[in-house]
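[Meeting: bench + compute handoff]

Bench side (C.D.) handed over the final construct sequence. Compute side (W.E.) agreed to return the predicted structure before the next meeting so the bench team could plan truncations. Sequence as handed over:
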Amino acid sequence: GGNAISIPVILKYGNEWMKKEVLPGLIMGDTVSCLSITEAYAGSDVAAIRTTAKKDASGENYVVAGTKKWITAGQYSDWFVTAVRTGGKNAAGVSMILVPKSDQVICSKIKTKY
């Protein structure tokens, strides 16, 4: 499920290293990816997302801060195709960034019964 909805984004918008280094593993089923857009406070309104991505001191990498919720295959993913805010308000300030799983990426089950 996660690969099916995230691979097309990498194919259409990803740069060459993503296509050469990440896609083969996803297509062969060796790795898993997910589309990380939905947030608890934004729901399906992508323009309202709060997760941010800002360049680090080196200017080469992004630091992503925020949370995502209800992400298909999120707990099993090696890669997160993630909607982040890199600019101003509304949809014009939203970018997609490919985030590798690491110790800084925390995935957990969410409470489904209240």
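W.E. noted at the follow-up: The radius of gyration is 14 Å. C.D. will use this when planning the next construct.
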